Each structure stands twice: as C-alpha cells, then as structure tokens.
C-alpha cells in the first residue's frame, strides 16, 4: 500500500509526457490552419449537393442558386422545395471530398422564411457511425437554407499511431486515478467518492469514464457530450446561456462552433429521455436549462 501513490505519480508523469508529445506533433503538423477556405470549390460542392437533392425529389428543372459566403468560414445555399434530409450528409460529404475539402464542418438546415433552425448535425457525428440526429424527420413544404459552418482551426487528422498514443496517455491517467483513489480508502459517504460518479434522478453519470446510466440503460458518451452533460448536472435548474455553454465546452480546445450546441443538446435529450425526472428545456434566443423534477412534484401533478 505504501508504494501505490508513488506508482500513481509515476503513471501521471508518464501520461503527461506522452500526451505532451502527442500535442507537440499535433501543433507541428497543422501549420496551415489559417489558410483561407476555397470559396469557389465550396460553392461548387454546395451546388452539386443541391442539384442531387432536388433531382432525388423529382425536380430536374429548377435553377440552382449560387452559394453565398456570409463569413470566412460560413456558407449557405437556398433550396426552394423539401428534400430527403437523410440523404444530405452522405451527398454533401461526397461533394466536399470531390472538391478536395477536408476541413470539418457543422450543418444547419433553416427555414428560409424566418431563419428558424429545423435540423442540423456535425460532420464529426456523421463520421462516427454514418448517421445523424433526426435523419428520418419529415419536412414540411416550403423553402430551406442549407448552411455550412467550417471549424477553425482544423482539428487534427490522426493516424492509427496518433490515436494509440492518445489512448495510451488517457489510460495511464485513468490508471493513476484508480490507484490514488484506492490508496486513500475513503468511506462510501466520503465527498471524494461522490466526485467520481454523480447521481441525479434516475441518472448516474461518470465524467472520468464518459459514461451515463439512465433508468438502468448504460451508454457511452463522446468527449464533448460528457463535458456538456457535466456542465448541465453541475448547474441544475439554472439557465445556461449559449455563449456560456460554448465557452465552457468548446473554447478550451481552441474551437468555437455555432449550431453544434443544438445538435449535442438534442443527443443528450435522447439519452435522458427514459428518466422522467430530468429534461433539458430550450429557452429560445437565450440558452438551455436542465430541469430536475422532484418525485413528489410529479405525484402532485
């Protein structure tokens, strides 16, 4: 038992050294992140995507409008009729690849009449499992604005060796944490025990393991999902403004995205749905609030 904590310290030092070397390789290998996006190629990619979407919808005659560049990393194109949304992610990514555009992006589908967000997803989500949230949702008649926001700076392209290095670093940190905690031997009611796993309603969340158990159903979370859920749980029944969420979840990575917060909130809502005591409420134009409902209040209502 005497050697446990020195071993844990050694594992932390090894993990820090390994992760630092990975970060150094990441910084050196991406010196062109400030390079302007090829607007003409993005225009062609968006117009090709719009053409294929309308063709699938049976429209082969409507004029395809040019794409608009609203900002250095923000582009949009208008479609004057509904289309098969579930085919959009694959078509758009194929069009981007044909133009040699590799930078990750977020997609928002807006009602062109009032600018209200209808659907959206992140390319990173699509790359994980080939699907996006609300893929089978039906669209109402009307016109739509397809908006694409590119990440700045460009996230790293990891090789298999890079991924193994990151994984080994985090495994060393996790092992050190387990050793240090076991050496302390805290009682079950000790505050240090509650810092590892947090229970709210019928939900049990572990930030370290990036996992959540909701009404007995266990799910693995992505890094950003875990950070966002932790932020909500640390501020129950409090209104969190969008700007605060973006800074807390994304800014420490050097990346501030736009509509991705809506997509990630949608995914958390789906995960928390089995727990009737928790719900994430949208405060339009302001932000979100995690409402924790007391069981007595549910019975009274």
Count every helix, treating DSSP H or I runs of 4 or more residues as helices.
Answer: 10
What kind of sheet is the major sheet? Answer: 5 strands, antiparallel
Task: Give the H and E element order.
Answer: HHEEHEEHEHHEEEEHEHHEEH
Question: Strand arrangement, largest sheet?
Answer: 1-2-5-3-4
What percentage of the residues does DSSP assign to strands (E)?
15-25%
Q: Poorly predicted ranges (pLDDT <50, ≥5 residues)?
A: 28-33, 185-195
Secondary structure: helix percent: 40-55%
Number of domains: 2
| Structural shape | globular
Total beta-strand segments:
12
Instruction: Report the average pLDDT across residues.
Output: 80
How much is the radius of gyration in Å? 22 Å
Q: What would you call the structural class?
A: alpha+beta
Distance between the termini: 53 Å
Please give a structural write-up.
This protein has 301 residues and is α+β, with helices and mostly antiparallel strands. The protein has 2 domains: 39-150, no CATH class; 189-300, Winged helix-like DNA-binding domain superfamily/Winged helix DNA-binding domain (Arc Repressor Mutant, subunit A, Orthogonal Bundle). The chain is built from 10 helices and 12 strands. The chain has a 5-stranded antiparallel β-sheet with strand order 1-2-5-3-4, sandwiched between helices. It has a 4-stranded antiparallel β-sheet with strand order 6-7-8-9, with helices on one face. Strands 10-12-11 form a 3-stranded antiparallel β-sheet. α2 runs antiparallel to α3 (88-98) and α7 (223-234) crosses α9. The protein is globular and about 70 Å long.
